[in-house]
Amino acid sequence: PQEYIIGGITVSGIQYLDPQALIAITDLKVGDKITIPGDELSNAIKKLYEQGLVGDAEITITKVEGNKIYLDFYLRERPRLSKIIFTGVKKSEEEDLQNKIELSRGKIVNDALIKNAQKKIKDYFNEKGFFNTEVKVTQIKDTLLPNSVILKFAVNKKDKVRINEIIFHGNQALSEKQLEKRMKKTKEKSFYKIFTSSKFIKTEYEQDLSNIIDYYNSKGYRDAKILSDTIYAVEDDRINIEITIDEGNRYYFREITWKGNYIYDDKFLSKILDIKKGDVYNMQTLQSRLNFNPNGLDISSLYLDDGYLFFNVEPVETLVEGDSIDIEIRIYEGQQATINEVIVSGNTKTHDHVILRELRTVPGEKFSRSDLIRSQRELAQLGYFDPEQIGISPIPDPATGTVDIHYTVVEKPSDQIELSGGWGGVQGLRFVGTLGLVFNNFSLRNVPEFKTWSPLPSGDGQRLALRFQANGRVFQTYSLSFTEPWLGGRRPNSFTFSLTRSNQNIFRSGDINKRTGHLTVQGATISLGRRLKWPDDFFSMSNSLSFMNYDLENYEFGGIQGFNTGHANNINLGTTIARNNLDDFTYPKRGSSIALSVSATPPYSLFRNLDYSDPNLTPQERFKWIEYHKWMFDNSWFTTLAKGQGKTGRSLVLNVRTHFGFIGSYNSKAGIGPFERFILGGGGLSGFNFLLGSEIIGLRGYPDNQIIPIKDGVRQTQGGTIYDKFVAELRYPLSTSPAFSIFILGFAEGGNTWDNFSQFNPFQIKRSAGVGTRIFMPAFGMIGIDWGYGFDKLPGSTQKHGPQVTFTIGQQLR
Questions:
Q1: Residue 623, burial from CB neighbour count under 10 angstroms (0-12, 13-18, 19+)
Q2: Phi and psi of 187, rounded to 5°?
Q3: I want to staple 599 with a disulfide (CB 3.0 to 4.6 A). Which of 56, 574, 578, 648 is the partner?
């Protein structure tokens, strides 16, 4: 070895790379002393290779002058990527792979890049059950671009790998069947498991191994562990899995003591914890009773709902003796926190006061976790924000004992438009068109401020609804309603005002210009509602005053009880008491909605000087003032049967509904009157029947408006005075996006209507079952399509009805 001084460095063989940058990478400079042979030159080559820019490198001594040496680095550049080609995959898979391997044009192609791409492709197909996927890579010189190559990935997915058998060793306390149930995604292939996937996916398999240990822990086996697991092929597309388990001993709780608690004594906390000496040791149960118990009160809620935001609890195992474990629960209570400031952000359309008035967290009051949860629900129920993106961030300040609460929301479209058409009517087949507009976040005070319109004034949480339906001169109906949810702005007292006018004309057959009769209905309703605090604050009550005027002239199609010409008036007072604690209106997973409503007219027959038993009393006189009392009960209950994973996981939900209705009279001689009845069948779309005040109630599996009573062999087309309906639905969401939600359902339901109590039999119902789907789009609301099979006969028919397709618009309660 001899020592030299570098007199000069040159780079040759390259076309695209910067020579000076490459020389800098070598860490060699003119004037440096190097030893030849020695480590300096070999290290320089290593550094060039490490960059991945060159595929080959040579160092040549071009000249030696005394102790000065001149070096030349001859480098061959690695090619750059110009294009990617896939073979053996579908078009959709090719697009997914392009995104997954993240190879862009112009990247240096080296071994690491190729191996990384191969691994990502294999991982992609492994996740789909193709465990034996092979990927071959070929570099093809690109003749159109210098120093560029095309990478061709030849993919051979081979057959999907299925799990032939799962074999457990070492399990004595728990059976194989119990353990297999804990493996949610890893299942054996079996002829009777037609809806169960038996694909082997490594990440899911590893999670299932953790599930097994968690299950053992929940049974008291705190030391359980997987000793080994082996996966081996039994066929090209079949594998066996063998899992060896060390169960360990089963443990039990012995002494549970408390330390650091001053607000609540040991006896009270132990009662809330509800874990007794001798109970099976289960740390998951202990943690849930301490921090979050979905089935009841827990220790953290006890403190956090009383303002102790800085509270902390930690269970510690103090003694393990034999099969018993002593636990000491250490508590730091801290001080009560007061809410300092409430901040709202993200609302680009809705005004701050609309949000703040719904919140249960008020500056100056004690912090409460339950108030946070309730506030989140109230914001979601407004319908103006994406419920999955409502954020709550408490920002505590231990120094001052206060907390700021920051709410973040993301606006979503809430206005709706209804554009529909269909064939119907009482005078032959006619086209009926409907236009409806609902503005759910309207602002009446901003109407004069044209600059704020987008496209209409909005942001104050008011509701304005307009609807028009017509089929030319035969039928028209108009309605307008306005709701202010916070009348006066200080309390949640709602005010609603609505107007409606409908007109049905009867024309001579074949002559649209010769009107022979008509029915005109016009009315107004005013209602006031308020939230109640007793029995709890999920209750609400509303009271309404309605007036309807009926004008009939030769209206044969509406001739009820001989009344086809004249005027009738309906003034009624209504009261509704309801309780609603559903967690979401679009796709509820838990909670219930209960409503009891009563509406009644004055008992005119008690003070009108009329003999209602007189056969000469004209229908005009009898029904000038309509009298009745109507009772309605509706109950809808939701529970989650299978909970989805994560915040947006898809949950299987059971919905059970019951509905009852009754219309009675004050005077048996006066009767109920001609305009209030119940009609069942179909999707619950009203058509023309609502002109006569009928309640149109859906019953899938049967035609619209065909479930009506029969009296003395005559179909009572006006409907019945009593009805019941029972529904059970299983729901599963396909998408929960606020812009487009969709869920599928299976249902079984039954209902019927009767003319009077003597005929009433709550279990003599028309039954049906079927499947359907619901699609929610903010602009159009809820749209539903159902296929139902009616198992019973229609009134007056001798055959079972059979299948029926039903179309619905809007979220229907009954």
A1: buried
A2: -130, 150
A3: 574
Give the residue among 501, 506, 500, 502 at the shortest CA–CA distance from 474: 506
Reported as a single tens digit per residue, the pLDDT across 330-341 is 999 999 999 999
Give the C-alpha separation, 387 to 648, whole Å. Answer: 10
Q: Exposed, middle or buried: residue 161 (CB in 10 Å: 0-12, 13-18, 19+)?
A: buried
For the cut 90, the answer to whether the pLDDT of residue 130 exceeds it is no
In the chain, count H helices and then E strands. 13, 36
For 12, other C-beta atoms within 10 Å of its C-beta total 12
pLDDT at 810: 59
Closest among 560, 526, 559, 531 to 543, alpha carbons compared? 526
User: Max alpha carbon distance in the chain (Å)?
Assistant: 141
Q: Distance between terminal CA atoms of the chain?
A: 97
- What is the DSSP code (8-state) at residue 268? H
Count, residues in the chain: 814
Give the pLDDT confidence of 259-276 residue by residue, as tens digits.
999 999 999 999 999 999
Residue 128, strand partner residues: none
Nearest CA among 327, 247, 345 for reference residue 279: 327
Say yes or no to pLDDT of 429 above 50.
Answer: no
Residue 263 is classified by DSSP as S
Q: How many CA atoms lie within 13 A of 286 on its CB side?
A: 24
Surface-to-core class of residue 731, CB atoms within 10 Å of its CB (0-12 exposed, 13-18 middle, 19+ buried): buried
**CA atoms 720, 724, 730, 736: torsion sign:** positive
Whole-number Å distance between alpha carbons of 156 and 86: 11
Select from 518, 560, 520, 526 the least CA-distant residue to 542.
Answer: 526
Which residues make beta-bridge pairs with 135?
A: 155
Confidence (pTM): 0.69
Q: Which stretches does DSSP call E strand in 97-224?
A: 134-141, 148-156, 162-169
Phi, psi of 43 (to 5 degrees): -65, -35
**Looking at this protein, which amino acid is placed at residue 769?**
A
Q: Are 545 and 581 in contact (CB under 8 A)?
A: no
Environment class of 745 (CB within 10 Å of its CB; exposed 0-12, middle 13-18, buried 19+):
middle
What confidence score (pLDDT) does residue 65 get? 86
What's the DSSP call for residue 349?
A: S
Q: Is 320 left (phi over 0), alpha (psi -120 to 50) or beta?
A: beta
Give the separation between CA 500 and CA 546, rounded to whole angstroms: 11
Joined tokens for residue 476: 């028209």
Q: Could you tell me which of 93, 158, 108 has the C-alpha nearest to residue 130?
A: 158
Higher pLDDT, 655 or 197: 655
Q: Which two tokens stand for residue 31?
A: 């004037």
Identify whether the C-beta of residue 90 lies closer than 8 Å to the C-beta of residue 114: no
The span from the CA of 516 to the CA of 433, in Å, is 24
Q: What is the pLDDT of residue 728?
A: 97
| Interval 720-730: pLDDT, tens | 999 999 999 99
Q: In the prediction, which pLDDT does 686 show?
A: 54
Going by C-alpha positions, the residue among 383, 358, 380, 501 that lies closest to residue 811 is 383
At residue 646's C-alpha, the angle toward residues 642 and 650, to 5°, is 45
- Beta strand 800-809 with 781-793 is antiparallel
Among residues 559, 558, 419, 572, the alpha carbon closest in space to that of 502 is found at: 558
d(CA 560, CA 552): 11
Q: Residue 563 — pLDDT band, cuts 50, 70, 90? A: confident
Identify whether the C-beta of residue 723 lies closer than 8 Å to the C-beta of residue 680.
yes
Which residues, 6 or more positions from 426, have their beta carbon under 8 angstroms from its beta carbon?
Answer: 504, 557, 688
Give the C-alpha distances (Å, rounded to integers) separating 676 from 562, 584, 601, 661.
Answer: 16, 33, 12, 11
DSSP 8-state code for residue 160: P
Per-residue pLDDT of 380-397, as tens digits, reads 888 899 888 899 999 999
